[in-house]
Design brief:
Blueprint (H helix, E strand, L loop, with lengths): L8 H11 L4 H4 L3 H11 L4 H14 L3 H6 L2 H8 L6 H16 L8 H5 L6 H12 L8 H11 L8 H14 L5 H14 L19 H5 L15 E12 L2 E6 L10 E2 L2 E3 L4 H10 L6 E11 L3 E11 L3 H7 L3 H4 L6 E4 L1 H6 L8 H4 L5
Parallel strand pairs: 1-6
Antiparallel strand pairs: 1-2, 1-4, 2-3, 2-7, 5-6
Helix pairs in contact: 1-12, 3-4, 3-9, 9-12, 10-12
Length: 363
């Protein structure tokens, strides 16, 4: 039986008016701010996004600035947020907006979805919050809340289920406050009807309308198939220093962390002895090898299990004296550049996967 979600509207809006978090993009919900914040909020916590959002809009205050920004600068601004294709799509979309929409974000749900990186959820969020267009914005929070309310065991990973819920909401969307209604559902999912752990039902404004609560099946909903276990990749990460600069290299343009800078590394988890032997076979002269410990980084489908080593190379003047330049000709280092701490801070973005070892970089 189809659930009538219209009964939720007044309760949710009243609760939202009293409990909505103060967020910079809410205080001034212009289309550009809503767009940037929604893209940042994908896969990232609200508290973490605040700092990135402020820095981003300070550096790139409008769509024109975004469209003209160099990719390296964009990646640096995005450093730490992960999923770097999101910012690349922001750039592509900004260029399209400048050429096809006279620099103004289109106030049209369908047109928004045609822009790179914008799906039905983001289009609905921008349309409703920035333009007061009565379109739904259904993300994981909204799916969880409404499937619990309806007591539904539908598989929320199925596109059909999401589309049906979007249509149900479209039919009852309040014309005067569509953005607030969408945000109230998102907020309830983030603060009360939480994704991990037991929901805070005693604080929920629609508890009395929730079938999952009355049937005590909150923890059984939403329904999602079990994820396949992530692939484990063992890696040895090297923090290589020479002349007070550190080796970094660009990854391939396709695949994981495509086109981003990284600390050089090797497949497998090498011991100090194995690394020493490897460097010697490569003809790399070094003064010191220091273990930096183990670390783990989780991507969506892959886990990196890493061991790190600090490797100190002879300075250039010492190599010149000995006439041994093999250090610079090794296959490990031919694709590397050496960057100072200042350059790494201001110019080159390193993904958070290398964060555990980047902390060893000294001024």
């Amino acid at each position: 039986m189809k659930y009538d979600y219209s009964n939720l509207i007044d309760y949710l809006l009243d609760w939202f008016d009293l409990n909505a978090r103060i967020l910079p993009w809410r205080e001034n919900p212009i289309p550009y701010y809503v767009w940037i914040s929604e893209i940042m909020l994908q896969q990232t916590r609200v508290e973490a996004v605040k700092v990135y959002f402020d820095r981003f809009i300070t550096t790139l205050p409008d769509i024109n600035a975004l469209a003209n920004a160099k990719e390296e600068n964009l990646l640096k601004l995005w450093e730490g947020l992960g999923y770097y294709n999101r910012v690349r799509n922001l750039s592509k979309a900004a260029k399209i907006i400048m050429t096809e929409y006279d620099g103004k974000m289109p106030a049209d749900y369908d047109a928004l979805q045609k822009l790179p990186g914008i799906g039905s959820y983001t289009a609905g969020a921008i349309a409703s919050i920035a333009f007061s267009i009565p379109e739904p914005a259904v993300d994981g929070n909204v799916l969880r809340v409404l499937k619990r309310v309806a007591g539904s065991f539908d598989d929320i990973t199925k596109e059909k289920v999401k589309r049906e819920l979007e249509q149900d909401l479209r039919e009852i969307m309040p014309g005067d406050r569509p953005g607030d209604f969408n945000q109230s559902l998102m907020e309830l999912g983030a603060l009360i009807c939480i994704p991990n752990g037991k929901p805070l039902c005693d604080k929920c404004p629609i508890m009395h309308l929730c079938k999952a609560f009355h049937q005590e099946i909150q923890m059984q909903i939403p329904v999602k198939p079990e994820k396949k276990p992530r692939k484990i990749e063992n890696r040895t990460i090297l923090l290589i220093e020479k002349d007070k600069k550190y080796a970094i290299r660009k990854r391939q343009e396709k695949g994981l962390l495509a086109g981003l800078w990284e600390l050089p590394g090797l497949s497998g988890k090498l011991s100090a002895i194995e690394l020493t032997e490897y460097l010697q076979k490569q003809g790399i002269n070094f003064n010191k090898i220091v273990p930096m410990g183990e670390a783990k980084h989780i991507f969506s489908h892959i886990e990196w299990h890493m061991v790190g080593f600090y490797v100190r190379l002879p300075d250039a003047d010492l190599l010149a004296e000995t006439g041994n330049y093999n250090t610079l000709e090794s296959s490990l280092l031919t694709s590397c550049i050496f960057a100072s701490t200042d350059e790494m801070e201001k110019e080159y973005s390193l993904p958070s996967a290398f964060g555990a070892y980047r902390n060893y970089i000294k001024e």
